[in-house]
Amino acid sequence: MKQFITLFLSTTFIWVFLFTTVCCQSLQAQKTEVKQVYVLVHGTWGGGWAFKEVDSLMTFKNVIVYRPTLTGQGERAHLASNTVGLDTHIMDIVNTVLFEDLHNIILVGHSYGGMVVAGVVNKIPERISKLVYLDAVVPENGESLVTAMGENTPQGLLVEDGFLIPKWVAKDAKAPKDVPHSLKTWTDKIVLDNPDRLKIPTTFILTVEKDKDPKKDGFASQAERAKSKGWPVLMLESDHNAQWSAPKELTEMLLELGK
User: Bigger pLDDT: 4 or 150?
Assistant: First the structure.
Protein backbone atom coordinates (compact mmCIF):
# COMPACT_ATOMS: atom_id res chain seq x y z
CA MET A 1 0.00 0.00 0.00
CA LYS A 2 2.82 2.39 0.91
CA GLN A 3 4.58 1.57 -2.36
CA PHE A 4 1.37 2.33 -4.28
CA ILE A 5 0.93 5.66 -2.49
CA THR A 6 4.57 6.56 -3.12
CA LEU A 7 4.27 5.68 -6.81
CA PHE A 8 1.03 7.65 -7.12
CA LEU A 9 2.52 10.74 -5.49
CA SER A 10 5.66 10.52 -7.61
CA THR A 11 3.65 10.20 -10.81
CA THR A 12 1.38 13.07 -9.80
CA PHE A 13 4.38 15.26 -9.03
CA ILE A 14 5.90 14.57 -12.45
CA TRP A 15 2.68 15.46 -14.25
CA VAL A 16 2.25 18.66 -12.21
CA PHE A 17 5.87 19.59 -12.90
CA LEU A 18 5.48 19.01 -16.64
CA PHE A 19 2.18 20.92 -16.77
CA THR A 20 3.64 23.86 -14.85
CA THR A 21 6.71 23.96 -17.08
CA VAL A 22 4.65 23.99 -20.27
CA CYS A 23 2.35 26.69 -18.93
CA CYS A 24 5.28 28.88 -17.87
CA GLN A 25 6.93 28.49 -21.25
CA SER A 26 3.67 29.43 -22.96
CA LEU A 27 3.23 32.51 -20.79
CA GLN A 28 6.83 33.53 -21.34
CA ALA A 29 6.37 33.21 -25.09
CA GLN A 30 3.29 35.44 -24.90
CA LYS A 31 5.21 38.02 -22.90
CA THR A 32 8.10 38.14 -25.38
CA GLU A 33 5.87 38.19 -28.48
CA VAL A 34 6.43 41.39 -30.43
CA LYS A 35 3.31 42.65 -32.15
CA GLN A 36 3.47 44.68 -35.33
CA VAL A 37 2.59 48.34 -34.78
CA TYR A 38 0.71 50.47 -37.31
CA VAL A 39 0.23 54.24 -37.16
CA LEU A 40 -2.61 55.43 -39.41
CA VAL A 41 -2.68 59.10 -40.42
CA HIS A 42 -5.97 60.50 -41.74
CA GLY A 43 -6.54 63.09 -44.44
CA THR A 44 -8.09 66.55 -44.78
CA TRP A 45 -11.28 67.25 -42.78
CA GLY A 46 -11.07 63.87 -41.05
CA GLY A 47 -9.77 62.50 -37.78
CA GLY A 48 -8.62 59.29 -36.16
CA TRP A 49 -12.31 58.36 -35.92
CA ALA A 50 -12.38 57.71 -39.67
CA PHE A 51 -10.22 54.61 -39.22
CA LYS A 52 -12.12 53.18 -36.25
CA GLU A 53 -13.47 50.15 -38.14
CA VAL A 54 -10.11 49.41 -39.75
CA ASP A 55 -8.51 49.67 -36.31
CA SER A 56 -10.95 47.10 -34.92
CA LEU A 57 -10.39 44.70 -37.81
CA MET A 58 -6.62 44.98 -37.56
CA THR A 59 -6.54 44.68 -33.77
CA PHE A 60 -8.58 41.49 -34.06
CA LYS A 61 -5.69 40.14 -36.15
CA ASN A 62 -3.34 40.66 -33.21
CA VAL A 63 -1.54 43.85 -34.22
CA ILE A 64 -1.34 47.21 -32.45
CA VAL A 65 -2.91 50.24 -34.11
CA TYR A 66 -2.59 53.94 -33.36
CA ARG A 67 -4.85 56.38 -35.21
CA PRO A 68 -3.93 59.83 -33.86
CA THR A 69 -5.98 62.87 -34.76
CA LEU A 70 -4.20 65.90 -36.20
CA THR A 71 -4.48 69.27 -34.46
CA GLY A 72 -7.76 71.03 -35.23
CA GLN A 73 -9.46 67.91 -36.58
CA GLY A 74 -11.89 65.36 -35.17
CA GLU A 75 -12.04 65.39 -31.39
CA ARG A 76 -9.33 68.08 -31.47
CA ALA A 77 -11.51 70.48 -33.45
CA HIS A 78 -11.54 72.84 -30.48
CA LEU A 79 -7.86 73.54 -31.27
CA ALA A 80 -8.62 74.61 -34.84
CA SER A 81 -6.83 77.72 -36.10
CA ASN A 82 -5.95 79.02 -39.53
CA THR A 83 -2.37 79.30 -38.25
CA VAL A 84 -2.09 75.51 -37.92
CA GLY A 85 0.37 74.43 -40.57
CA LEU A 86 1.92 71.30 -42.03
CA ASP A 87 4.74 71.26 -39.46
CA THR A 88 2.19 71.15 -36.63
CA HIS A 89 0.60 68.04 -38.11
CA ILE A 90 3.97 66.43 -38.73
CA MET A 91 4.92 66.99 -35.09
CA ASP A 92 1.56 65.56 -33.96
CA ILE A 93 2.65 62.22 -35.38
CA VAL A 94 6.33 62.51 -34.46
CA ASN A 95 5.39 63.10 -30.83
CA THR A 96 2.88 60.24 -30.86
CA VAL A 97 5.71 57.94 -31.90
CA LEU A 98 8.21 59.37 -29.41
CA PHE A 99 5.95 59.63 -26.36
CA GLU A 100 4.39 56.20 -26.96
CA ASP A 101 7.96 54.94 -27.48
CA LEU A 102 7.09 53.18 -30.73
CA HIS A 103 9.66 51.39 -32.87
CA ASN A 104 9.64 49.48 -36.16
CA ILE A 105 6.27 50.91 -37.05
CA ILE A 106 4.39 50.72 -40.32
CA LEU A 107 3.39 54.30 -41.02
CA VAL A 108 0.32 54.81 -43.24
CA GLY A 109 -0.74 58.16 -44.67
CA HIS A 110 -4.11 58.64 -46.38
CA SER A 111 -4.70 61.46 -48.91
CA TYR A 112 -3.33 64.70 -47.35
CA GLY A 113 -1.80 62.36 -44.75
CA GLY A 114 0.85 61.58 -47.36
CA MET A 115 2.31 65.04 -46.77
CA VAL A 116 2.37 64.36 -43.05
CA VAL A 117 4.01 60.91 -43.16
CA ALA A 118 6.63 62.18 -45.61
CA GLY A 119 7.60 64.82 -43.05
CA VAL A 120 7.54 62.28 -40.22
CA VAL A 121 9.88 59.84 -41.96
CA ASN A 122 12.21 62.76 -42.69
CA LYS A 123 12.46 63.52 -38.96
CA ILE A 124 12.52 60.03 -37.40
CA PRO A 125 13.36 57.42 -40.07
CA GLU A 126 14.94 55.20 -37.43
CA ARG A 127 11.51 54.53 -35.88
CA ILE A 128 9.84 53.43 -39.11
CA SER A 129 10.16 50.01 -40.75
CA LYS A 130 7.75 50.54 -43.66
CA LEU A 131 5.90 53.46 -45.21
CA VAL A 132 2.54 53.26 -46.99
CA TYR A 133 0.89 55.99 -49.06
CA LEU A 134 -2.82 55.22 -49.21
CA ASP A 135 -4.23 57.13 -52.19
CA ALA A 136 -2.03 59.90 -50.89
CA VAL A 137 0.10 62.84 -51.91
CA VAL A 138 3.75 61.97 -52.60
CA PRO A 139 5.66 65.25 -52.23
CA GLU A 140 9.16 66.22 -53.29
CA ASN A 141 11.37 68.47 -51.19
CA GLY A 142 10.07 72.04 -51.23
CA GLU A 143 6.60 71.19 -52.50
CA SER A 144 3.25 71.91 -50.90
CA LEU A 145 0.17 69.75 -51.36
CA VAL A 146 -1.06 72.19 -53.99
CA THR A 147 2.14 72.08 -56.04
CA ALA A 148 2.54 68.32 -55.61
CA MET A 149 -0.98 67.65 -56.84
CA GLY A 150 -0.82 70.29 -59.56
CA GLU A 151 -3.84 70.18 -61.86
CA ASN A 152 -5.25 67.33 -59.79
CA THR A 153 -5.71 69.58 -56.76
CA PRO A 154 -9.44 69.46 -55.91
CA GLN A 155 -11.29 72.39 -57.45
CA GLY A 156 -14.37 74.29 -56.32
CA LEU A 157 -13.52 74.02 -52.64
CA LEU A 158 -15.16 76.38 -50.19
CA VAL A 159 -12.59 78.50 -48.36
CA GLU A 160 -13.57 80.76 -45.47
CA ASP A 161 -11.27 82.64 -43.06
CA GLY A 162 -8.29 80.45 -43.94
CA PHE A 163 -10.19 77.17 -43.63
CA LEU A 164 -11.18 74.53 -46.17
CA ILE A 165 -14.86 73.97 -45.42
CA PRO A 166 -16.45 70.53 -45.92
CA LYS A 167 -19.57 71.87 -47.61
CA TRP A 168 -21.12 68.39 -47.77
CA VAL A 169 -21.57 68.41 -43.97
CA ALA A 170 -24.84 69.86 -42.69
CA LYS A 171 -24.49 72.59 -40.08
CA ASP A 172 -26.54 70.59 -37.57
CA ALA A 173 -24.69 67.31 -38.23
CA LYS A 174 -23.58 65.50 -35.10
CA ALA A 175 -20.12 64.08 -34.45
CA PRO A 176 -18.31 62.20 -35.77
CA LYS A 177 -18.13 64.32 -38.88
CA ASP A 178 -15.70 66.09 -41.19
CA VAL A 179 -14.67 69.51 -39.90
CA PRO A 180 -12.99 72.62 -41.38
CA HIS A 181 -9.29 72.16 -42.12
CA SER A 182 -6.59 74.82 -42.06
CA LEU A 183 -5.72 75.93 -45.61
CA LYS A 184 -2.16 76.67 -44.48
CA THR A 185 -1.44 72.92 -44.26
CA TRP A 186 -2.08 72.71 -48.02
CA THR A 187 0.16 75.65 -48.94
CA ASP A 188 3.11 75.08 -46.57
CA LYS A 189 6.21 73.70 -48.27
CA ILE A 190 7.64 70.47 -46.93
CA VAL A 191 11.27 69.93 -46.00
CA LEU A 192 12.66 66.54 -47.05
CA ASP A 193 16.40 66.72 -46.51
CA ASN A 194 17.23 63.54 -44.59
CA PRO A 195 18.77 60.92 -46.93
CA ASP A 196 17.94 58.14 -44.44
CA ARG A 197 14.25 58.52 -45.32
CA LEU A 198 15.03 57.01 -48.72
CA LYS A 199 16.06 53.74 -47.09
CA ILE A 200 12.55 53.00 -45.79
CA PRO A 201 10.66 50.39 -47.87
CA THR A 202 7.66 52.22 -49.29
CA THR A 203 4.44 51.12 -51.00
CA PHE A 204 1.72 53.11 -52.74
CA ILE A 205 -1.92 51.96 -52.74
CA LEU A 206 -4.09 53.45 -55.48
CA THR A 207 -7.82 53.18 -54.81
CA VAL A 208 -9.94 53.02 -57.95
CA GLU A 209 -13.71 52.74 -58.15
CA LYS A 210 -15.22 49.75 -59.93
CA ASP A 211 -15.23 50.03 -63.74
CA LYS A 212 -13.25 53.28 -63.62
CA ASP A 213 -10.03 53.90 -65.57
CA PRO A 214 -7.09 53.98 -63.12
CA LYS A 215 -5.26 56.47 -65.37
CA LYS A 216 -8.08 58.98 -64.83
CA ASP A 217 -8.06 58.66 -61.05
CA GLY A 218 -7.32 61.85 -59.14
CA PHE A 219 -4.29 60.24 -57.49
CA ALA A 220 -2.97 58.48 -60.60
CA SER A 221 -0.25 61.12 -60.90
CA GLN A 222 0.90 60.31 -57.37
CA ALA A 223 0.98 56.60 -58.21
CA GLU A 224 3.18 57.47 -61.20
CA ARG A 225 5.50 59.36 -58.87
CA ALA A 226 5.70 56.28 -56.71
CA LYS A 227 6.52 54.09 -59.71
CA SER A 228 9.27 56.47 -60.77
CA LYS A 229 10.85 55.98 -57.35
CA GLY A 230 10.76 52.21 -57.76
CA TRP A 231 8.06 51.68 -55.13
CA PRO A 232 5.50 48.89 -55.51
CA VAL A 233 2.10 50.26 -56.53
CA LEU A 234 -0.93 48.20 -55.46
CA MET A 235 -4.50 48.74 -56.58
CA LEU A 236 -7.57 48.50 -54.36
CA GLU A 237 -11.13 48.58 -55.71
CA SER A 238 -12.68 51.35 -53.68
CA ASP A 239 -13.49 55.02 -53.73
CA HIS A 240 -11.00 57.45 -52.20
CA ASN A 241 -12.07 56.58 -48.65
CA ALA A 242 -11.28 52.87 -48.53
CA GLN A 243 -11.50 52.96 -44.73
CA TRP A 244 -15.28 53.22 -45.21
CA SER A 245 -16.01 51.67 -48.58
CA ALA A 246 -13.63 48.68 -48.37
CA PRO A 247 -12.42 48.34 -44.76
CA LYS A 248 -11.93 44.55 -44.87
CA GLU A 249 -10.01 44.63 -48.12
CA LEU A 250 -7.89 47.53 -46.90
CA THR A 251 -7.17 45.71 -43.65
CA GLU A 252 -6.05 42.59 -45.49
CA MET A 253 -3.76 44.62 -47.73
CA LEU A 254 -2.16 46.49 -44.82
CA LEU A 255 -1.67 43.28 -42.85
CA GLU A 256 -0.04 41.65 -45.86
CA LEU A 257 2.34 44.58 -46.18
CA GLY A 258 3.27 44.10 -42.53
CA LYS A 259 4.61 40.59 -43.06
Answer: 150
The predicted pLDDT at position 22 comes to 46
pLDDT bin (cut points 50, 70, 90) of residue 15 is: low
Summarize pLDDT for 155-195 with one digit per residue, the tens: 999 999 999 999 999 989 999 999 999 999 999 999 999 99
Q: How far apart are the first and last CA of the chain?
A: 59
Boundaries of every domain in the chain = 32-257
Backbone angles phi, psi at 128, to 5 degrees: -115, 130
Beta 128-134 vs 105-110: how paired, if at all?
A: parallel
Q: What's this model's pTM, rounded to 2 decimal places?
A: 0.88
Q: Which letter does DSSP use for residue 215 in this model? A: G
DSSP state of 198: G
Distance CA 137, CA 117 (A): 10
Contact predicate 57/176, CB 8 Å: no
**pLDDT at residue 12, as a whole number:** 52
Fold of the 32-257 domain? Rossmann fold (3.40.50)
Distance CA 158, CA 169 (A): 12
For Cα atoms 60, 64, 69, give the angle at the middle one, nearest 5 degrees: 110
pLDDT tens figures, 45-64 = 999 999 999 999 999 999 99
DSSP 40-62: EE--TT--GGGGHHHHHHHHHTT
How buried is residue 193: exposed, middle or buried, by Cβ count under 10 Å (0-12/13-18/19+)?
exposed
Return d(Cα 144, Cα 102) in angstroms, integer. Answer: 28
Identity of the amino acid at 194: N
Q: Which residues contact 176 (CB under 8 A, 6 or more apart)?
A: 47, 49, 50, 74
Phi-psi region of 45 (alpha: psi -120 to 50; beta: other; left: phi over 0): left
